[in-house]
Amino acid sequence: QVQLVESGGGLVQSGGSLRLSCVASGHTLRSYRMGWFRQAPGKEREFVAAINWSGGLTTYATSVKGRFTISRDNAKNTVYLQMNNLKPEDTAVYYCAADPRSGYGSSWYEYDYWGQGTQVTVSS
């Protein structure tokens, strides 16, 4: 069983930056694909970014491409989401997700394990 814990959320002004971290326990993430999703109040959970097991393949939602960067450190069992030039519409709870299948996934049902989420609030 994989347990995921996100951290790094908070309140930031528009144009600011945050780096989210997701630390796994219970199993090495070395062979897992990882993803970040977010959910704003009254909206469905949406895909943000994903990365394959080695970090060699990444994909992003159009709305964050060029501003967000997903990366991983398998030695630390950690995945990161660097968020730059944040906008008020980025305000949401951000979730980390993991799955033992290969490749990367951009849909919530492609991930078996989820963290509890971390709140990101961007003020205008």
Describe what you observe in this structure.
This protein is mostly beta strands. 0% of the residues lie in helices and 49% in strands. It contains no helices and eleven strands. The strands form two sheets. Strands 2, 4, 5, 6, 9, 10 and 11 form a seven-stranded mixed beta sheet that branches. It starts with a strand and ends with a strand.
Number of DSSP strand runs: 11
Q: Which term fits the overall shape? A: globular
CA distance, first residue to last residue: 40 Å
Query: Which sequence of SSEs, written as H and E, runs from N to C?
Result: EEEEEEEEEEE
* Quaternary status: single chain
The percentage helix is under 10%
- Largest beta sheet, briefly? 7 strands, mixed
Structural class of the helix and strand makeup? mainly beta
Number of helices: 0
Mean pLDDT: 95
**What is the radius of gyration computed over CA atoms, rounded to a whole number of angstroms?**
13 Å
Strand content: over 45%
Poorly predicted tracts of residues: none
Labels describing this entry:
single chain; 7-stranded mixed sheet; mainly beta; 124 residues
Topology:
Blueprint: E1 3-7, E2 10-13, E3 18-25, E4 33-39, E5 46-51, E6 58-60, E7 68-73, E8 78-83, E9 92-99, E10 113-114, E11 118-123
Parallel strand pairs: 2-11
Antiparallel strand pairs: 1-3, 3-8, 4-5, 4-9, 5-6, 7-8, 9-10, 9-11
